[in-house]
């Protein structure tokens, strides 16, 4: 038997939170799943979240290289391999998200997270305004 090791770092925690808030399931339910897809839109988004929170900023065409250093079968799913996350797959997923409407998707994920972590208020105010300041 051949054994190999891959660096998990903190991404196991990130993947666990993605599962807890039902990130993949919510996206796939809203966007839909084409039976011809090997990687669903939800799985692609999870991979992009792992990349973004992995303190790495790799362009889409280098995504398989990033995923190749991670245990994809543990983080996302046993049926997927690093090379499945190519720029075409990720690009199609981003197109599906845009076509569906990112606000609706974001709201559903926020509601899932809100409930999952014990907040059961009558109202949810979600201000997603971002203010960025750059300079010295």
From TrEMBL:
It comes from the Archaea. Residues 4-110 form the DUF4277 domain. InterPro entries: DUF4277. This is DUF4277 domain-containing protein.
């Amino acid at each position: 038997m051949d054994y190999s090791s891959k660096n998990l770092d903190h991404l196991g925690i990130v993947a666990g939170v993605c599962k807890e808030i039902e990130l993949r399931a919510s996206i796939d339910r809203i966007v839909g799943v084409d039976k011809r897809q090997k990687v669903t839109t939800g799985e692609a988004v999870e991979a992009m979240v792992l990349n973004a929170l992995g303190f790495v900023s790799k362009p889409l065409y280098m995504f398989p290289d990033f995923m190749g250093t991670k245990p994809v079968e543990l983080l996302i799913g046993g049926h997927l391999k690093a090379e499945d996350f190519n720029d075409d797959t990720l690009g199609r997923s981003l197109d599906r998200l845009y076509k569906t409407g990112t606000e609706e998707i974001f709201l559903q994920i926020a509601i899932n997270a809100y409930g999952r972590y014990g907040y059961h208020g009558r109202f949810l105010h979600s201000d997603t305004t971002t203010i960025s300041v750059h300079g010295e």
